[in-house]
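Question: what's this shape?

___
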Amino acid sequence: MSALDHDKRKSSYRVCLAHCKYPVIHEVIHKRGWKIVDDESQDWNLIWHDRSVPISTVMKLSPWQQLNHFPNTREIARKDYLARNMKRFQKRFPQSFSFFPLTFVFPSEIPQLRQFIKSYKYKLSKDLFISKPVRGSQGKGIRLLPDLSTFPSEPCVIQKYISNPLLINGKKCDLRLYVIIYSVNPLIILLHSHGIVRFASTKYSTDPKHIGQTTMHLTNYSLNKHYVKKESYVKVCTDDIHFTKPLEGKFPPHHHKTMLSTSLKWTLDKFNQYLFDIDVDVAKVWSDIADVIIKTVFVGSSHMKYNKTRAGMCFEVLGFDIMLDSKFKPWLIEVNHSPSYSCDSELDSIIKEKLLNDVFDLVHKRAISRRVVEKSERKAHKRRMFHAVTRTQSYLDGLVDRSTKDSSFQ
């Protein structure tokens, strides 16, 4: 393809953002020179929905159209569905799926929960539990349970609390990782190299008197941002990074221009540097994290399949929340089918713009021209018509031959 043809194809690419509220997505598409369409009834190549969509929406796609959601991603993105699917696999492969904490779905699993409470294991343990609304987000409605003597009043999941989290500067943290499902048949999963390390704003303690302090136990930025002063960023140029020990092939040097951090957020580059400096095998940590992601997506992938011969193409950007414990074991906290693209800071803007551009590059590479599809369909229609006429003519010729033979016999 010539440069001119590429530019024409680029400028003719149309994206429907009628269901998208995030300014950064509008800005990235505008910078790429793509046409933004605000009405779903108009012609478009790609449509972006902030929320999940039913399978009927997928099946309405034309072959040249793409959508940023697969059907039924709720099987891993809704807390109660994720718990049920994970427990099904844990029963068959307990060691392979040990990265998902002990969980009960309330109220459907009240009998199992009561049985667990009566068990010897629970009576000996001093474990905390945490309840999460099945449809909750941004930390809303989450609370720690000092014991299981009382049950919540709303549908939720009750999960064993990871009480020995990795602490950095005395604070709890987790990883928001962006995972792209490019295809489900075959299953193609991509882990983006940019993510966010999120911190609680209060130093961690297991003292029971702090059990209700959400800014100590939850890392959601939407909760913690109200309890810190206005964020100031520390920029560290790559050229100025000093490695305290030889690399020895464990951790590749950075190729990015800067590493950003605040009191509540780090880039993954800075996090990797921290792990390297405390002599952690960074490659093994990420190998274990990748194992968690692959198995989790596999659990839900069978529910996401659809008939591609009748519809366009789907892809998905998932937000995986992973927590490391004090032994650097990764735990799956939850999966978000519509991760936030809000940009409250320079760090957010850099990471999310890079993520979106990489996603749009992948999507555009497999884009199919409507003209090509319609031309192919016309050719196929002509072939079918030709074969139908040929078969009809052959049938008529056969009738004539038989009638001629019959009349000759008489």
Summary: Residues 370-409 form the longest helix (40 residues).
